[in-house]
Amino acid sequence: MRLGQEGAVTLECAVNVQGALEKCAVVKEIPAGRGFGAAALSLAPKFSMKPVTRDGPYLGGAKVYVPMEFRIR
Which end of the chain has the smaller Cβ count within 10 Å, N or C? Predict the structure, then answer.
């Protein structure tokens, strides 16, 4: 923010049986090398999703893509 730069990141993560994101990796970072990927990875543990079910029980390991935008307002 102090540099006046905006950015965007897409993370690929697995959703565990509790709905937490794990094993996240940056698959897209614009602009590259400005720290937006690291910032997105640090935010990933704060997100949760409903895990996939099959015939009742929750299953872990489903992959999701999480887009994030870093905007100055």
Answer: C
CA distance 29 to 9: 4
For residue range 29-65, list pLDDT tens digits in order: 999 999 999 999 999 999 998 877 777 777 788 899 9
pTM assigned to the model: 0.84
How far apart (Å, rounded) are the C-alpha atoms in residues 68 and 45?
A: 14
Written as six digits, the tokens of 16 are 């565990």
In terms of residue numbers, what domain contains 14? 7-70
Residue 17, CA distances (Å) to 11, 42, 47, 73 in order: 19, 21, 14, 36
In the numeric block, the tokens 């940056």 are attached to 26
Q: How many domains does the chain have?
A: 1
User: Is residue 1 domain-resident?
Assistant: no
